């Protein structure tokens, strides 16, 4: 097998970094910044942590700790141990101090730990973004400024985990004082959050029993987000609209009138003793119902019909209006058209999708999202000038055929989970400059063809056991280590590692 890099770049401006990059790739130093290297007779090439060390350089953050016994300005170096925080730093407010922190900029931090009672005030109306960890200690109240011109919100990235424990609270007084969660947030105590919004990728775990934490405003309607009542005992489910609702842990989870579930409801997904108590005479409707991790058939489900394993003894019920996965009908059609799908319900970001029937063709004519995507033998999925996001696994073909075609440079195609192109199947990008984002492993046993100057990002391993034709655009590999190999040749023009 041959693996050819015709161009390899690093982002470091130092000659030493370029030498390390060339030495790691080619085994020798070449004064030319564009290194040609050819590797023959190897099944796999592991591109290890050395690339990350060369690339990230000074991008790593430090730890900055507030050192005043009261409040002060964020931008004053003397108020911190380690200097004024910059992007990607870990910021700590100690538990022995209290006060108002002013002039906080709109900044992205790696982590934020608050162990004391503070008011956070912005330099302007803005947002603090957290990449990995946000922690508010037990019994601590954090107040977000509601004063116009200094209003502050907090956003957790999809990679972040937040935790509020005990009687801890996040207070506010304005609609801008919202905690937006795109990652995972653990509400472990009985405290209060002034305003909380789950983004489409967010998961909110509510753990306390029997009294749960409170939210002055709780918004969890974004398609794909999940609220999980996972306490070890009885809990009362807040009576609001949910996208995905999970009841886990143990004990009776009481669902009150006024509750609704638009996508998926799951009861005891990992076993345990959680049961749903739906209000007397209540009738919930969901697109999918999982009991003990098992997808249930369409129709009504209740204590009377399913027994006491998953339901408490009430007359309430939940009706599955469309099972997941959502499966295309034989005639195919437009993705957004209900008649294209068995059950007459179009997919949402929370649904698994199967393009199921031989000769079935489904066309995406607007931005589309789903969880797992499977294109069966003989079936075709086509997308033009629109974004496609698959948060789970993408499987093209069942071993003999199956086609995924992208025909326009407009709209990023994002595959967050693993992508598998099976034998006989094809994944074709013929938009001549489309952006492709592979967030996990890419395995090719069939054919994958990129065209023009398509820009490609790959965050996992690349394995070619079939036919891979790369575009002339930059291919960026993120994360370490990378394994690039397979039984067939891989030739990529321009490659970067970060």
Cα shape: flat
Kindly report the average pLDDT value.
86
Describe the main β-sheet briefly: 17 strands, mixed
Distance between the termini: 25 Å
Class by alpha and beta content: mainly beta
Report what the structure shows.
It is a single chain. The protein is 5% helix and 46% strand. It is built from three helices and 53 strands. The chain has a 17-stranded mixed sheet that branches. Helix 1 (15-26) packs antiparallel against helix 2 (50-56). Residues 1-59 have low confidence and may be disordered.
SSE map:
Layout: E1 2-8, H1 15-26, E2 37-40, E3 44-47, H2 50-56, E4 63-66, E5 72-73, E6 80-81, E7 90-93, E8 98-104, E9 107-114, E10 117-122, E11 126-136, E12 141-144, E13 152-156, E14 161-164, E15 169-171, E16 179-181, E17 184-187, E18 192-198, E19 203-206, E20 214-219, E21 226-229, E22 235-237, E23 241-247, E24 250-255, E25 260-267, E26 273-278, E27 283-286, E28 288-291, E29 294-295, E30 299-302, H3 303-306, E31 317-320, E32 326-327, E33 333-334, E34 353-355, E35 361-364, E36 368-370, E37 373-375, E38 380-383, E39 388-390, E40 394-396, E41 403-406, E42 413-415, E43 419-421, E44 426-429, E45 435-438, E46 442-444, E47 447-449, E48 455-458, E49 462-464, E50 467-469, E51 474-477, E52 482-485, E53 490-497
Parallel strand pairs: 1-53, 4-7, 5-8, 7-9, 8-10, 9-11, 10-12, 11-13, 11-14, 12-15, 13-16, 14-17, 16-18, 17-19, 18-20, 19-21, 21-23, 22-24, 23-25, 24-26, 25-28, 27-31, 32-34, 33-35, 34-37, 35-38, 36-39, 37-40, 38-41, 39-42, 40-43, 41-44, 42-45, 43-46, 44-47, 45-48, 46-49, 47-50, 48-51, 49-52, ...
Antiparallel strand pairs: 1-2, 3-52, 4-6, 28-29, 30-31
Helix pairs in contact: 1-2
